[in-house]
UniProtKB/TrEMBL annotation:
This is EAL domain-containing protein. It comes from the Bacteria. InterPro entries: Cyclic-di-GMP_PDE-like, EAL_dom, EAL_sf, Nucleotide_cyclase, Rev_trsase/Diguanyl_cyclase. Transmembrane segments: none annotated. The lineage of its organism: Bacteria, Bacillati, Bacillota, Clostridia, Lachnospirales. PANTHER family: CYCLIC DI-GMP PHOSPHODIESTERASE PDED-RELATED (PTHR33121:SF79), CYCLIC DI-GMP PHOSPHODIESTERASE PDEF (PTHR33121). One of its GO terms (molecular function) is cyclic-guanylate-specific phosphodiesterase activity. PROSITE patterns: EAL (PS50883). Residues 293-547 form the EAL domain.
């Protein structure tokens, strides 16, 4: 008999705290458990004291989870791993309730060791996804934060099944939900005390493997992949799943949870871009002077918030095609900060364009470019400046107003500003882009189509937007002297642009031979290293002054 009535009263009080918790206290020295009314009723036992109660409780455990239950309970009754949480499916009538086992051991003033266990019905909590019965993102974030605080080493594996959202169209409504639910049940069967699985969204699953190194993570991912592939035949249909997977080994980490999630998501995006069937590790991503790519992105993002600290603008001259005389320049943003050095814009512009910070950076580039161009124009009257517009800017109502305010501030003529629209803007509704572009045209600002021909949307945008010029990308110029297909394609672009009365700028002019070949065509401007690499404001001033 458990001598201390106060312990029983304490357990009874705990059971009243919430509908979803069921406590038990066990005198480990006598293998005697006290089961309060609510716990007994939920599992179908009599309330009061029981000997060998956990053997009786095993009758309520799902058959698949029974080996794990017996092993984990054995640990705890032996005084081992009392702080580790584990989960099994169990119940009185249906053995599908996901129950979390939360426990601790203390020594009473009678000298006996007592094991306090709280069973929590996880299905009654908002953490549980109602379709897959797995934990959701909020639970995942809390658990990761716990691992960080405890300085535990874990492998975080995120898996996405590609194109599964199309299954509803092909096979009927809710078909992809049925697949995900079936997969979730299989994943639950894979779990033990050292692993956990979570459902994020859009058929993304996250797995956490405790005390895992790279080899263990790869082995566990192979089990995941094999489980998914075992679903090749479902409801009379055959499938081949595209599986993308990313892994982060979390060890000795002192950052925040959001950065952990960003790192895993970034790696998963890279896996999809590469169409990689293998597990891609964040730890293998590109590094700059010892810092990971995602860490650099976070610092660059913060730089925008801090008044674009570390950013600067360089200028690449644009020359008359007929004689090489400098007529204008393109403004190109750069970022440099020690100890990282200079980070190429190609590595951060696309990423920043998906964030609201791009609008602030775009305004910084516009202001810096127009400020410098107003000085260039004092030396070279009519000097024009080309500035790239991001999709984040084009969708903002204030973009036109802010640009006109900058022009007025520096007394720079709108007719000497060319805004370059890129293929990256293709995701915006064409009506939205057209509205903004038309407003710029009405203000006297020119619009040109950058990277013309490099994407599937550029021709459509060219036809639907009131553009006045095109820039032919350097891709089409590289090796053009040896490749007849490129010659035919570039000639076709030039003929189209001239027929449409558009200004033409060809990028990528790197030597005399290219210049001589392309001068035979009716082209407005050239741009490339043959004339100058991107340079700072002072260096361009010297070029303009140079006789």
């Amino acid at each position: 008999m458990i001598e201390h009535t106060i312990y029983k009263e304490f357990i009874d009080k705990i059971s009243e705290l919430s509908d979803g918790i069921y406590p038990i206290i066990t005198d480990l020295d006598n293998d005697l458990s006290y089961v309060p009314d609510k716990t007994a009723d939920f599992f179908g036992f009599e309330a009061g004291e029981h000997t060998c109660f956990f053997e009786q409780l095993s009758s309520c455990v799902n058959d698949v989870d029974l080996p794990e239950y017996k092993q984990e309970i054995r640990y705890r009754l032996n005084g081992e791993k009392p702080d580790d949480i584990f989960y099994v499916r169990m119940g009185k009538h249906t053995k599908e309730y996901m129950m979390g086992f939360y426990s601790d051991i203390f020594t009473g003033d009678d000298g006996h060791r007592y094991h306090v266990l709280v069973l929590r019905n996880e299905n009654t909590l908002p953490d549980i996804d109602p379709y897959t019965y797995l934990y959701g993102q909020s639970k995942f974030e809390r658990d990761i934060n716990g691992y960080i605080m405890e300085n535990r080493s874990v492998a975080i594996i995120e898996v996405e099944i590609g194109h599964i959202d199309e299954f509803n169209i092909l096979y009927g409504s809710n078909f992809n939900t049925a697949i995900q639910r079936e997969l979730a049940l299989k994943f639950i069967d894979m779990m033990d005390g050292s692993t956990a699985t979570y459902y994020m969204n859009n058929c993304k699953f996250v797995f956490v493997v405790k005390e895992a190194d790279r080899a263990l993570a790869k082995a566990f991912y192979q089990k995941i992949a094999d489980t998914i592939k075992s679903m090749y035949f479902f409801k009379c249909f055959k499938f081949e799943f595209d599986i993308y997977a990313a892994c982060l080994i979390l060890k000795d980490y002192d950052g925040d949870t959001s950065t952990v999630i960003s790192k895993v998501e970034y790696t998963l995006d890279r896996a999809k871009e590469l169409h990689s069937p293998d597990l891609l590790f964040f730890n293998d991503m590109v590094r700059f002077n010892g810092s990971s790519h995602i860490d650099i992105m976070k610092i660059i993002h913060q730089s925008v918030i801090n008044g674009c600290d570390g950013f600067f603008v360089e200028f690449q001259p644009i020359v008359k095609a007929c004689n090489g005389e400098i007529m204008g320049a393109e403004a190109l943003v750069r970022w440099k900060k020690e100890p990282f050095g200079t980070v190429p814009p190609g590595l951060f512009i696309d990423w920043l364009e998906d964030t609201p910070a791009m609008y602030e950076l775009g305004n910084y580039i516009m202001r810096t470019a127009i400020s410098a161009a107003s000085e260039f124009a004092k030396i070279k009257p009519g000097f024009f400046i080309n500035v790239n517009a991001s999709s984040e800017q084009l969708e903002k109502e204030n973009f036109v107003k802010d640009t006109l305010a900058i022009l007025k501030e520096y007394d720079f003529p709108p007719s000497q500003l060319w805004i370059e629209i890129t293929e990256r803007c293709r995701d915006l509704p064409i009506s939205m882009i057209k509205k903004t572009v038309t407003a710029f045209r009405e203000a006297g600002i020119h619009i040109t189509m950058d990277d013309y021909g490099t994407g599937s949307s550029s021709s459509q945008m060219m036809l639907e937007l009131p553009v006045e010029g095109v820039k032919i990308d350097m891709f089409f110029v590289k090796d053009i002297l040896e490749e007849k297909k490129k010659q035919a394609l570039v000639i076709g672009m030039i003929n189209f642009a001239n027929a449409a009365d558009l200004k033409i700028c060809i990028e990528g002019i790197e030597n005399d031979s290219l210049e001589s070949y392309l001068r035979q065509f009716d082209v407005t401007c050239f741009q490339g290293y043959h004339y100058s690499r991107p340079i700072c404001q002072d260096e361009l001033m010297k070029l303009l002054i140079k006789p």
